[in-house]
From TrEMBL:
GO terms of molecular function: metal ion binding; phosphoglycolate phosphatase activity
Protein name: Phosphoglycolate phosphatase
Annotated source species: Rhizobium leguminosarum
Top-rank taxon: Bacteria
Keyword Ribosomal protein on entry: no
The protein's Enzyme Commission number: 3.1.3.18
Phylogenetic lineage: Bacteria, Pseudomonadati, Pseudomonadota, Alphaproteobacteria, Hyphomicrobiales
InterPro entries: HAD-like_hydrolase_sf (IPR050155), HAD-like_sf (IPR036412), HAD-SF_hydro_IA (IPR006439), HAD_2 (IPR041492), HAD_sf (IPR023214), PGP-like_dom2 (IPR023198), PGPase_prok (IPR037512)
Length: 236
């Protein structure tokens, strides 16, 4: 049997703000949604406080921000309006962050598995990655509605690792915001934070195990170093 330290690792990516720069399309679809209530548009700066828990929470928070707290029975129609607009425009102006595709090619060449663990609805994540021809990179793609729980609950990440056929002791989570770093900590998996996404605080405040500022840094050597350092950290 291959010793566990020689097994190629699994890299689990968050989607919005980590794999893909989705902000223009999220803001547009959100503003289209709240315009139905006559509310003023939100901005990119607002998005960092709104995104991260899926479309429902994003819409609720945007309405509250605009001084219009929602009755719970108003939400389903607004979520439907958001999903129709967002899915209808995909891929819109969404693109992978610089260096991502080259980094994924590099990791795949080293026999790594890759997966996505996002709080976006699974169907929207899958549709978007399909439009960008990126689905083929991933052994599993799970969303905020794939399980009965979602990030930061550890079971969203452990369930993703299981679906991807990964080994939890050889897995790493990469994300842009608190839910990603928290889900990794809750699952006992090392985390890498990226500073170019939608965190409303500097990512160093989230206490990730590592920060990378560009995907050029994401190499097998870096991942092996992180796994080694994390194993030492949890052993003491
Ligand atoms: O859609 C959201 O609210 C968050 O999505 P993410 O988990 O991919 O950042
Ligand atoms: Mg994110």
């Amino acid at each position: 049997m291959t010793p566990s330290h020689a097994r190629p690792p699994l890299i689990v990516f968050d989607l919005d703000g980590t794999l893909l720069d989705t902000h223009t399309d999220l803001v547009e679809s959100l503003n289209h949604t709240i315009a139905a209530l006559g509310l003023d548009p939100v901005s990119y700066d607002d998005l960092t406080h709104l995104v991260g828990h899926g479309a429902r929470v994003m819409i609720e928070r945007a309405c509250r921000l605009r001084g219009h707290p929602l009755e719970s029975d108003a939400l389903p129609a607004l979520v439907e309006r958001f999903v129709a607009h967002y899915a209808g425009n995909m891929p819109g102006r969404t693109e992978p962050y610089p260096g991502l595709v080259a980094a994924m090619d590099r990791l795949k060449s080293a026999r790594y598995r890759l997966a996505v663990c996002t709080n976006k609805m699974e169907s929207l994540a899958l549709g978007l990655l399909e439009k960008l021809d990126l689905v083929r990179y991933f052994d599993a793609i799970t969303g905020g509605d794939s399980f009965t729980v979602r990030k930061p609950d550890a079971r969203h990440l452990t369930g993703t690792i299981e679906r991807a056929g990964g080994d939890i002791t050889r897995s790493v989570m990469i994300g842009d915001s608190i839910n990603d770093i928290a889900v990794a900590r809750n699952a006992g998996v090392p985390s890498i934070a990226v500073p170019f996404g939608y965190s409303d605080v500097p990512v160093s405040n989230l206490d990730p195990d590592m920060i990378i500022t560009h995907y050029d840094e994401l190499t097998p050597e870096l991942v092996e170093r992180l796994l080694r350092e994390y194993a030492v950290k949890v052993a003491v």
